[in-house]
Amino acid sequence: MFVARPPMDTMETTAPLTSFSDGTDLQLVFFSLDTAEAQRLREMGLYEGARISIIKNTNKVIVRVDGSRIGLRRELAMHLFGTRASAA
User: Fold this and answer.
1) Grouped pLDDT means (10 residues each) for the chain, 88 residues
2) How far apart are CA 84 and CA 65, in angstroms?
3) Domains of the chain
4) Dist CA 45 CA 41 (whole Å)
5) What is the pTM of this model?
6) Which of 41, 45, 61, 76 has an alpha carbon within 20 to 30 A of 67's alpha carbon?
7) Sign (positive/negative) of CA torsion 25, 64, 72, 29?
8) CA 79 – CA 88 distance, rounded (Å)
């Protein structure tokens, strides 16, 4: 399994997508996934540094990225880590 570690200055504020509530704007920081799964997400527009919004966080996590909605299994979303996006 490939695990990319985030920069040390984001460790305190970084959490799995499943820990954020509906309507939260995030920046993806890192994935704790094997290389193939991580690459598939990147091909769909979910990559480290991408700004996303949590649309719905229930048994599935629905996110908005670049105007598209992407549904993720909760088990998968637990391995995507983000931090609240700064208002810029």
Assistant:
1) 52 86 96 94 95 96 96 97 84
2) 14
3) 8-84 (2.30.30.90)
4) 6
5) 0.82
6) 76
7) negative
8) 26
Cα–Cα nearest to 24, from 16, 34, 32, 35: 16
Report how far Cα 9 is from the mean position of its chain's Cα atoms: 18
Cβ pair 48, 61 in contact under 8 A: no
Instruction: Give the C-alpha separation, 71 to 64, whole Å.
Output: 9
Decide if 32 contacts 16 (C-beta within 8 A). no
Question: Which token pair is 15?
Answer: 């959490």
The sheet carrying 15-16 orders its strands as 15-16, 80-84, 25-31, 51-57, 60-65, 68-73
